[in-house]
Amino acid sequence: MVANKPRIVIVGAGIAGLSAAQQLCRAGQGDKFDVVVVEAAPRAGGRVFTSEFAGHRVEMGATWVQGITGSPVYALAHDAGALTEDAGGHLPYERMDGPFPDDRVLTVAEGGDVVDADKVAKPVEELYRGMMDAARAGEAGGGGGGVEEYLRRGLRAYQAARTDGSGSKVKEVEEALLAMHINRERTDTSADALGDLDLAAEGEYRDFPGDHVTIPGGYTRVVEHLVAALPPGTVRLGLRLRRLDWGETPVRLHFADDGAAALIADHVILTVSLGVLKASLGKDAASAAGAIAFDPPLPQFKRDAVSRLGFGVVNKLFVELEAVEPEGGGEEQQLAGAAAPPDFPFLHMAFDGHVAKIPWWMRGTESICPVHAGSSVALAWFAGREAKHLEFLPDDDVVRGVQATLDSFLPATSSSGATSRWRVKRIERSRWAGDPLFVGSYSYVAVGSSGGDLDRMAEPLPRGGVPEADRTPPPLRVLFAGEATHRTHYSTTHAAYLSGVREADRLLQHYP
Ligand SMILES: Cc1cc2nc3c(=O)[nH]c(=O)nc-3n(C[C@H](O)[C@H](O)[C@H](O)COP(=O)(O)OP(=O)(O)OC[C@H]3O[C@@H](n4cnc5c(N)ncnc54)[C@H](O)[C@@H]3O)c2cc1C
């Protein structure tokens, strides 16, 4: 033993690392273990990060508590006093009016025609949902071409069976609506393409029951609450693990800052993202900015799970808007199509590709919606290649791309042609892929992986299961927590929380 009580070093002060620390520090009134949390960033919270933009409280990472009944994250937010409307000040916050009901959504086709909700938008949505449910239940059947082609076949069959004589324009809009739903699924799952998802394995995924809610005081309040419950000095910021020597006890942790002394530990709980682990095992690991060197290398079963599981990119783009009078003003101005609402609408966009000024990456989003009804701040979500591309674009290009999109979808006719009555003032965006401390956003079960890989992610090292001659239990040198280690709740904050508690409990059982 490193000291007179077991020393546990937790790597990462996201929700998983902090919940593990809390569980360990609670045990034996904090006297049982020597617990340290090392965090590379100058802040705790990881992929939970509340920020401010244009006078609003916005979440750059996690937004929702996904189901409140039984959710430990909801309980924490409640205990932190962060669920009341004036928590932490009087800023309006992202999604303060909850998930928006369908009847507030305005679906518009490229060029500005409003899509008939009852005759066109809803039937396509129902068709889409039914087909995805069937695919997740393993009932998609053969046919080849992957899940997107399966969806297109379903739409063609629906169109062929229809007898109302809808013309080719309606069919084009329906295809664009299908692409819109696919974009939504991509951001929900973080997969670049639906064909990357193992839909049958995804059937194991569960949210908690009950409403999905946001946190008025900001998600970061949950993080602050967890940190405040730890003994002062437990969390050490600005320490990036660079090398982990785990071949024998004590385990040695070496940090990127040469001035930082190595730490030794009886046990390490590693909570870095699956993206960081992938970067650490990839062929460019030696030069990857956030990579961790493992000595000895991680065993093959762990490497396989890390490389097979999916870890995608999802980014959020916040846009501040102002309403402007169309050029020329006056009585003769006609607000066309969708442009009539006084507030910025909950705009869902059916891109069909005919307006050349709209950049390709804008076509990857499903919607641009005010962060709450009546707000001048709107939010668009992006996944995959569009989300990555967005990270590197100069602000001006992003502003131009969003403006061209609004000019097309919410046009106001004027003497100079179609412009929107909404002008983009400025933007803010997340950059989860380019940040070497995350290298992406959240995990999914990719084709070729399985729920079993999520379990393998959670297995401690050295691997147990082979009884040693003297029946000594495996030494639990490296334990793994984090959202990508939870078989049924992966990709969420509650998965992160539960995984931290799970690994703390594993150590508590090790020292009964
Ligand atoms: C855009 C976006 C939207 C999301 N929306 C939701 C949502 O609505 N609801 C929901 O439940 N979840 C959502 N999530 C997912 C949720 O945020 C994560 O699942 C959860 O926060 C992960 O927590 P974690 O502790 O597992 O990992 P992390 O938060 O990634 O924590 C790991 C920590 O390790 C640190 N670290 C990395 N490398 C090192 C190193 N070498 N040395 C030391 N420290 C290191 C990192 O800085 C980080 O703080 C979203 C995520 C994103 C990005």
Automatic annotation (TrEMBL):
Amine oxidase domain ranges (all copies): 15-508
Cofactor(s), names only, from the UniProt record: FAD
Keywords: Cytoplasm, FAD, Flavoprotein, Oxidoreductase
A Gene Ontology BP annotation from the UniProt entry: thermospermine catabolic process
Cellular component aspect of the GO annotation: cytoplasm
Main location: cytoplasm
Membrane-spanning segments: none
Subcellular location: Cytoplasm
Source organism, top-level taxon: Eukaryota
GO molecular function terms noted in the UniProt entry: flavin adenine dinucleotide binding; polyamine oxidase activity; spermine oxidase activity
Family: Belongs to the flavin monoamine oxidase family.
Protein name listed in UniProt: Amine oxidase domain-containing protein
Lineage, top ranks: Eukaryota, Viridiplantae, Streptophyta, Embryophyta, Tracheophyta
Protein's gene: LOC100823564
